[in-house]
Amino acid sequence: MSNEIKRLAVFTSGGDAPGMNAAVRAVVRTAAFNDLHVYGITRGYEGMIDGDLKRLEVRDVGNIIHRGGTILKTARSKRFMTPEGRKTAYEALLAFDIDACVAIGGNGTFTGADVFSKEYDIPIVGVPGTIDNDLYGTDATVGFDTAINTAIEAVDKIRDTADSHNRLFFVEVMGRNSGFIALNTGIGSGAGCILIPEIDSNIDELVEVLRKGARRKKLFSVVIVAEGNKYGGATEIAERVQEAFDHYDTKVAIIGHLQRGGSPSALDRVLASRLGFGAVEAIIAGKSNCMVGIINNKIKHTPFVDAITKNKHPNKDLVRMAEILAI
């Protein structure tokens, strides 16, 4: 272990994701095992600027692995985007003798960490915590699996109503500019069509799919729409389809922030634990300015700049399978 690392800070930033608490727990307990003092930063970069740090002991993270949200709270910080804000944040870390940080979050969190780490030469390792699963360098992000399970549960209930009333439901799921949640929700719920940003489809093609279903006497259909779809949200798409094809009674459901809440799935708890553990081990090994991910079930380290700028595309085989199974 490096003699320079004695005190470690951990924080959650950006949108919350189920499993963040499990990651915090893993960071604290792995650090304690290695005789490192751990401090939790409340409210992400905002709390860092305000010097809102508190010592975390092993018992402080007991009974949190199953809880959604984050005990450290989270926020988006405009102040941290300025050189003055980052300078204040660095001075706050110095006041607590912090030698390195673990940042749990997504694109915005790692963008800030990349700049901050380079400006002040402070070791920072990231844990990918975002339901969107849009970070390059990991097969899955913390919170992604839980978000899918939540969305599928909602769609299952919507299918009951759609079937009872001969309806066409457009269900909008989250994901920012990524279609991972939509694709997996669509496959898992047996949707009739899936619209994601990564696949170039159009309204005419969607209408033709629905017409084919109607000719086969299909009584209802569910279309999953990723919120970042280039043709607009579920409401806009539903209106355009209704104008061209009025066979069904058309309805819209937007699942929204339900997907961020709730107790993390078993998969997310294990993933978060592995990544939190891996982040501390990476810092001890002298790594910095990188994200810890899992690819093909093995821990991998990806530079922040790659994690946030390189494109991560849905599996083409999954997309093809979804189209075939939806006939």
General description of the model:
This protein is α/β, with parallel strands linked by helices and 327 residues long. The protein folds into two domains: 7-143 and 264-309, 3-Layer(aba) Sandwich (Rossmann fold); 146-260, 3-Layer(aba) Sandwich (Rossmann fold), CATH 3.40.50. The protein contains eleven helices and eleven strands. The strands form two sheets. A seven-stranded mixed sheet has the order 3-2-1-4-5-10-11, sandwiched between helices. Strands 7-8-6-9 form a four-stranded parallel sheet, with helices on both faces. Strand 7 (193-195), helix 7 and strand 8 (221-226) form a beta-alpha-beta unit.
Instruction: Estimate the strand proportion.
Output: 15-25%
Q: What gross morphology would you assign?
A: elongated
Distance between the termini: 57 Å
Largest sheet: 7 strands, mixed
- What is the highest CATH level, the class of the largest domain? Alpha Beta
Q: Label the CATH architecture of the largest domain.
A: 3-Layer(aba) Sandwich
Mean pLDDT: 93
Q: Structural class, from secondary structure content? A: alpha/beta
CATH topology of the largest domain: Rossmann fold
Q: Reading side by side through the largest sheet, how are the strands ordered?
A: 3-2-1-4-5-10-11
Rg measurement, Å:
22 Å
Tell me the number of structural domains.
Answer: 2
**Helix proportion range:** 40-55%
Per DSSP E runs of 2 or more residues, the count of β-strands stands at 11
Number of helices: 11
Question: Order of helices and strands, N to C?
Answer: EHEHEHEHEHEHEHEHEHEEHH
**Poorly predicted regions:** none
